[in-house]
Amino acid sequence: MTNRNSSRLASFIAPVIAGLLLASCSSSGDEDRARVTVISESGGKVNPIGINLNHVSATARMAVAKGLIGLDEQGRIVPSIAARWIVTDDGLSYIFRLNEARWNDGRQITAERIATLLRERIAELAGSRLGRDLRVIDEIVSMTGRVIEIRLDSPQPNFLQLLAQPELGLFRAGHGAGPMVEISTEPTLVLGPLLQPDEEADDEETDESSVEDDPRRVFLRGESAALAIARFDAGHIDVVLNGKFHHLPLIDASGIDTGNLRLDPVAGLFGLRFVRADGFWAIPDNREILSMAIDRPALLTSFPNVTAWKSRQKIIPEALDVEGINTRPDWATMTMQDRIEFARTMVARWKASDGYIPPLVIGLPDEAGADILFLRVQSDLRRIGLDAKKVGIDRVADVRLIDEIAPYDSPQWFLTQLTCDLTAVCLNDADARIADADAATNLEIKARLYAEAEQMLVNHYNYIPLGTPVRWSIARPDQRGFAVNPRGWHPLNSLVGIPIS
């Protein structure tokens, strides 16, 4: 065993011991209580009021501050503050009728207040991960006491998936509308049901006593992957959320039953995005060599617990393809051996005329799974005459790993991650085509423009697709209210049988 692998194993063993010592006091096997840990790499602080929320804070926000609509445990759109809605035939207007409901301080929810809060929240999110997607909203108006209209600049298929994101849950002066409410925050966040007036007793009991009488509780914390896995293995928590590819070796080391490893069928981007392109890498044809050289199936099978992991050669999922437009790379039908021989020839030709090619600097997380990915890519590059160097994800690099879930199913999201707003290695013509697609009101024209933009970016090779993102949870097969889903969010209220509305 190498020194590096020994240190990785030691870094797992220590949290295992700590996990055994820091057991939660709630009992297992109680359907009214769920102990949940969200893997958090930015610290375990839970703060649902904010803009750029870590995963544990976003999970908490989903529980205590619902939006117009929400997601159920299967990732489906469900009513929340809004009881129902209609979409006009042109796709430019969404009209919502609100439920009769109250904030957690007892005040009535009104359409006028919700419209104001939505406008304010969307303005706050301008610089967030959803900022560009939310620009499609032209106006939000209160039509009557219980009806709100959202008008769009152009039709946006699957707009409701965007509207159901946790960041669009609403607070009024710090008060959410449930479906849960904070009971306590130390040492973990404890959540109970937010009971609406018709659920309470007829006497003059306070809201607090009503909540105390209801036994349903979720205990939520954020912590490292190693400690979360240790707690689950010891039986001290029920559900672990937000596992990523680079945490997978910890599953192997822990011995957790793979039947408890639950993989979400999410869509998104998982690959290498160029952030600097000098010398050899300044030329798109040479960046193409990198994409050709990587043996994607071999890379993904380096992680044996995720047999459903799918490799990718293009940017947008096939489900969103446009008939008649081929967005796969030119080499897609070549065998792996033919790709290697072609790439080796091109590299040798460059070296003969231009000399030495420095190693490709790859920015990756400092985790065991990222080490596996790097060594696989480095090996693929070495067999064609190139090399690679690994640095931290925030260090100066040529390429950085992008590992993001699409918040909604639209070509727009995938393409905008590769525009000049987000990376210096970009293509102005593709940006212009994306802008034309964003503005198009005809859905067929919009889809075709996005497909043309993808063609341009595929040939520009500022992004090297590797596969679909991996998002995993740990939960026993009989865990109440838990299901894998394509959105990658798991509502806490479902775990203890609390309806969203």
TrEMBL record:
Q: Which Gene Ontology BP terms does the record give? A: peptide transport
Solute-binding protein family domain location is 77-170
Q: Which UniProt keywords apply?
A: Signal, Transport
Where in the cell? Periplasm
Output the Gene Ontology terms for molecular function. peptide transmembrane transporter activity
Signal sequence span is 1-29
Tell me if Transport is a UniProt keyword of this record: yes
Please provide, in alphabetical order, the Gene Ontology terms of the cellular component aspect for this entry: cell envelope
Where does the UniProt entry say this protein principally localizes?
A: periplasm
In terms of Gene3D superfamilies, this protein maps to: Dipeptide-binding Protein, Domain 1 (3.90.76.10), Dipeptide-binding Protein, Domain 3 (3.10.105.10), Periplasmic binding protein-like II (3.40.190.10)
| Pfam families noted in UniProt | SBP_bac_5
Q: What InterPro entries does the record tag this protein with?
A: SBP_5, SBP_5_dom
* Protein family (similarity comment): Belongs to the bacterial solute-binding protein 5 family.
Name listed for the protein in its UniProt record: ABC-type transport system, substrate-binding protein
Q: What is the lineage of its organism?
A: Bacteria, Pseudomonadati, Pseudomonadota, Alphaproteobacteria, Sphingomonadales
